[in-house]
Design goal:
Length: 421
């Protein structure tokens, strides 16, 4: 029998059949580079050329809002929980002193911002950002579950340790993953999306700082820690749902090591390290709003604006003010300053560092007032939060974008981890 000549309609039918088989197998390994797009397996590994916002951004923003609700909700409670609610195995109170609670709150925060270095290495060398965020988010959820079920010192230690690993491990990957979604054609949208990213952080933080102190006051620590855990689960699901929309930058392994210890990598680290030293001073002061300011508020008159304010709820002033001040600075203050002198990222950060001094001078005066036997109103702390948040907008948002844009492509997560550290 002669071999049929596969031409004309027969060849067309064969190609159509191949396409149908491929459509039925979405997991089939594919790689193409049409117009700059690269797809390996099921996932994009390079941005699709477009002047629009990348399709994966809504999933990242939703994930960040829910995750920040989770983190700030439990973090807002730690100092108060340790001084009023902590129990022993037999159910009796086993609370800490205020200095102990302050120390352990800051050890926890230190761990959350130190562990990103490990998370970045795992991401850039072995797993990639997507899998690192997904796997460590599950660890994060287990930490919340532990805190909700066990209100003893061992439960506090284990729960906080799991959250340090989870929250710390994903932090450099999530912010770097935002930038990975953009190519050359829509790079101009990067500043806008980092503003949205920071906006989502503070939406989550606002609601959590208002809600979780009420949950602790009315329903106890199990609900107060459990609800943030539910939001962390929602964050994990939202991130997983966007897996086919994200750009997945694969881990570079040996190339990552070469870039880190090459001239460019070491040069970037050396230049940014000088800036990060000053940023660390800012955040060492900023994070006292989660401990020393909360404990100070407990020794003040908490009746303000016709309401009884829980000391931990005052922290919600910060994210609320961020939501208000981001557009004010973006459309009003920055353009006005720029008319006087060019406002570079480094100048924004420098101004923010100087502004920080003022709010801590106010905090010191309030402490002197209390030590002298006075009972100042907790509303005075609102002035502190206004000034501190102005500094945060100038320092934190600017540094977040600056660190990403200065980092070599294969070192994005690592450079973000140095910033967080």
């Amino acid at each position: 029998m002669p071999v049929p000549d596969r031409t004309g309609n027969e060849a067309a039918n064969l190609m159509a059949e191949r396409r149908r088989r491929q459509a039925r197998r979405p997991d089939l390994l594919k790689k193409h580079t049409t117009k700059g797009t690269v797809r390996m397996g099921k996932y994009l590994t390079a941005p699709i050329p477009s002047k629009k916002m990348p399709k994966g951004i809504p999933y990242i923003i939703a994930n960040e809002a829910a995750e920040r609700f989770s983190y700030y909700g439990m973090n807002a409670l730690l100092a108060i929980f340790m001084t009023t609610c902590l129990r022993s195995r037999d159910g009796s109170l086993d609370v800490m002193t205020e200095p102990e609670a302050t120390l352990y709150t800051h050890l926890f925060i230190m761990g959350v911002y130190a562990f990103p270095l490990i998370g970045a290495l795992i991401s850039d060398m072995f797993l990639g950002k997507y899998r690192t965020v997904l796997y460590l988010s599950i660890v994060y959820c287990l930490g919340h579950l532990t805190l909700a079920l066990d209100v003893t010192r061992p439960g506090l230690l284990i729960g906080c340790l799991l959250i340090v690993i989870g929250a710390g491990g994903i932090k450099p990957c999530v912010s770097a993953n935002v930038g990975d979604q953009f190519g050359e054609s829509n790079q101009h949208l990067l500043t806008k999306v980092f503003g949205w990213f920071y906006f989502s952080i503070n939406v989550g933080a606002t609601f959590s700082m208002l809600l979780t102190p009420l949950l602790l006051d009315r329903f106890g620590p199990r609900w107060a820690f459990g609800v943030p855990g539910i939001f962390m689960f929602i964050a994990t699901v939202a991130f997983w749902m966007g897996r086919h929309k994200f750009v997945h930058i694969p881990p570079s392994r040996s190339e990552f090591v070469k870039e880190c210890f090459g001239r460019e990598g070491l040069g970037v680290i050396r230049r940014l390290a000088i800036l990060f030293v000053f940023v660390s001073m800012f955040f060492s002061l900023f994070d006292q709003s989660h401990s020393a300011w909360v404990l100070q508020g407990a020794r003040m008159n908490t009746h303000w604006l016709g309401m009884d304010i829980l000391p931990a709820q005052m922290q919600a002033a910060n994210p609320i003010l961020v939501l208000i001040l981001i557009p004010i600075f973006g459309f009003g203050i920055y353009p006005a300053i720029h008319k006087v002198f060019p406002l570079t990222p480094l100048r924004k950060i420098s101004i923010g560092l100087f502004v920080t001094v003022i709010c801590f001078a106010i905090s010191a005066l309030l402490e002197m007032w209390i030590a002298a036997g006075g009972l100042p109103n907790i509303g005075w702390q609102a002035f502190n939060y206004v000034i501190l948040t102005c500094a945060e907008v100038m320092v934190s948002i600017t540094c977040l974008e600056f660190a990403y844009t200065q980092a070599p492509r294969k070192m994005k997560s690592l450079i973000m981890s140095f910033y967080l550290l």
